[in-house]
Amino acid sequence: MKLDIKIGFGFDVHSFAEGRKLILGGIEIPSTKGLEGHSDADVLLHAISDAILGALALGDIGRHFPNTDERWKDVDSAVILKHCYSLVKKEGYSISNIDSMLAIEIPKVSPFIEKIRNNISELLQISPSQISVKATTAEKLGFVGRAEGVVAMATVLLIKSDFNV
């Protein structure tokens, strides 16, 4: 039996900015500041998208959605994630699971974790049980600890949908 699996890792970071909405996992989180970026700056969906692209060895979201291209200015990161997932399906894979982590000092996102998981589940048409979203603080250390920005990391496991046995 041959099992065809691929694993990818994604990482993204954005600084806080005045006058923007805070979008994490496609969900607006109540906050006095949002994240700076060319798109809606959803660090979580960006990290997951990069993990998908990494598993497929297709570069990163900057290659597919360059911040120098005005077509992607303020784009909803769900568009980015759905594009990356279309590449998974095109290559004959499916997502086994996603494990992700947010490093954010404020605001507290734990009350929104299930809503975020459910939203990602809907975007990818997979079960919420295949999606882990965790959050931690930086214990007041570094730029995250000073509430200057947010870090997101994600791993994704892809399995060939029609592997030979």
Tell me what you see in this structure.
The protein has 165 residues and is of the alpha+beta class. It has one domain (5-160): 2-Layer Sandwich (60s Ribosomal Protein L30, Chain: A), CATH 3.30.1330.50. It is built from 5 helices and 7 strands. The protein has a 5-stranded mixed sheet with strand order 4-1-7-5-6. Helix 1 runs parallel beside helix 3 (77-90). It is globular and about 50 Å long. The model has no long low-confidence stretch (mean pLDDT 93).
Quick overview:
It is an enzyme of class 4 (lyase). It is built from five helices and seven strands, in the order ββββαααβαβαβ. With 165 residues, it is α+β, with helices and mostly antiparallel strands.
- CATH topological fold name: 60s Ribosomal Protein L30, Chain: A
Beta-strand percentage? 25-35%
Give the SSE string: EEEEHHHEHEHE
Helix content: 25-40%
Q: List the uncertain runs.
A: none
CATH superfamily: 2-C-methyl-D-erythritol 2,4-cyclodiphosphate synthase
The dominant shape is globular
Number of strands: 7
Q: Which structural class do you get from the secondary structure elements?
A: alpha+beta
Shape-level CATH architecture: 2-Layer Sandwich
Number of helices: 5
